[in-house]
Amino acid sequence: MCGIVGAIADRDVVPVLIEGLKRLEYRGYDSAGIAIVAEEAVRRVRRTGRVAEMEAAAGAEDFHASLGIGHTRWATHGGVTEGNAHPHISHGELALVHNGIIENHEQQRERLLALGYTFESQTDTEVIAHLIHHYQSQGHDLLVALQHAVKELDGAYAIAVISKRDPQRMVCARMGCPLLVGLGEGENFVASDVSAIVSATRRVIFLEEGDTAELTREQVRVFDASGAEIPRDVHVSDVSLASLELGPYRHFMQKEIHEQPRAIADTIEAIIDRNSFVSAMFGENAEDIFRDIEAVQILACGTSYYAGLTARYWIEAIAGLPCAVDIASEYRYRQVVANPKQLIVTISQSGETLDTMEALKYAKSLGQQRTLSICNVPESAIPRASELVFYTRAGAEIGVASTKAFTTQLVALFVLTCTLAKLHGRLDAEQEAEMLEALRHLPGSVQHALNLEPQIVAWSERFAPKQHALFLGRGVHYPIALEGALKLKEISYIHAEAYPAGELKHGPLALVDAAMPVVVIAPNDKLLEKVKSNIQEVRARGGEMFVFTDQDSHFSESEGVHVIRTPRHVGVLSPIVHAIPVQLLAYHAALARGTDVDKPRNLAKSVTVE
Length: 610
Ligand code: HGA
What we know:
It is an enzyme of class 2 (transferase). The chain has 610 residues and is of the alpha/beta class. It is built from 19 helices and 24 strands. The chain folds into 3 domains: 3-244, Aminohydrolase, N-terminal nucleophile (Ntn) domain (Glutamine Phosphoribosylpyrophosphate, subunit 1, domain 1); 252-449, Rossmann fold (3-Layer(aba) Sandwich); 453-593, Rossmann fold (3-Layer(aba) Sandwich). The strands form 4 sheets. It has an 8-stranded antiparallel beta sheet, with helices on one face. Strands 5-6-7-8-12-13 form a 6-stranded antiparallel beta sheet. A 5-stranded parallel beta sheet has the order 16-15-17-18-19, with helices on both faces. The longest helix has 22 residues, at 429-450. Glutamine hydroxamate binds next to strand 6. The site of glutamine hydroxamate has 17 residues, from strand 6.
């Protein structure tokens, strides 16, 4: 969603801001802007649409400065207009960018109107700019004015502020939305995501909840929620520039689909090296916690939720523990019966998904203190709020539609399953060796699935003109059908629904006719014969079938039944391998329809608002 970048330096920071905003584009946005302090004036340029348009406008207006802030906006309050785009300016003196939502903006607006402030936008954000200006006008310096202002805000924010009254510094604050400070040589930066500043510096301080910070060229000072100066750890980010660039690919989604063998190999590296499922990989106290728990509760949204649904089949079958999976935005408002013996597992690629974070806080407030986060972004908010963590090593995922994050989450959940099974006496040495062997072969099997791409391209041409599609699966492959339907919806805008194949005749069969393609995930598992019967039900109604299966299933093509086979059945890890063809199908169908694959309409990468 929204992105922030800011810089104070001895050089022109405008190119730094523009490059940073371009690197934040993947998060999804509808407008962009920058503000600078130059020659004792605040200047700003904003545009709806792409950063490139705003860049052209900044170029035309000859923007150069050594202090500035930039923003990509994903509107929550107020329409997508230039007037609502950030930065917002108060009294021509102070410019501010904001990620998040100010819940008490209406009360603050009333109060500021009474103080004589006028509003130019419909955003919740503008109140923050005026509030800081109000405290500055009472004689406080910029930092103190910010610290006073944030005390009066309810809601979530990451904020960066510059002021012509104080041209030698930039201040920022964080509550509920990520913000970090980048440390350079004689220059410093602020960003909502390390990718925005990675070509300038890799040394970063992750601000904590309630922190404010002051940046000059030479120094960064961080203050906690009480206003006391506090040392925060400096981290060296290992985000690689290559992972942020397209290279030979046409889209990030395509690149990320093809990176999956590597991403999976990196995620399992430590396990393969140790040749054992070791609980220490989840954190120091993991063994005690894992031994003690009696059940698992998974909380996630979107694709991560489908990873959780897949894991339920594994956790119950292999580890023998009851497992519930909830959509985070539902769980957080449900009257949950707490079970302190439950392990709460949150799954979030970014580690900042607001609903998942709130569901975690809710679970903890109910006394459920055993928490594990599965996440792809180190030091992000959800892992930091969790007792245990397993980091997937997918590398930066830029495409809005998740691919490599999904398959590496599945790998992480499989490792969790085997670790729990071992500690609960359900996995003997021989079985452990089998599971490790299956994991070892997984990157190769995923590569084989990727090699099916030419056949899938041929299918996608038949798909592209369709308005609707059905996806079917059974057992552990049902969540892969759900994920396939979601991928297709997200990037091709073809309406797609997924059902457990056994549910077909309880309703959705009514939809089937020659215009409704039906995709079936049907590997050679114990439900194969059942799925074959379900396929006959569809064929009998004239539906065209597209079946993903494996060599061992002996499925044959026939009139209206198209079959693509992965090279062999990979047993328990089969859902991970079958995620690949449904990703490729969605990608190529979208390509054929000419949609914006990496930035699908209305969607954002990290969903940091409710
Ligand atoms: N509420 C602000 C910022 C929105 C945001 O953070 N989106 O991710 C606005 O609507 O401008």
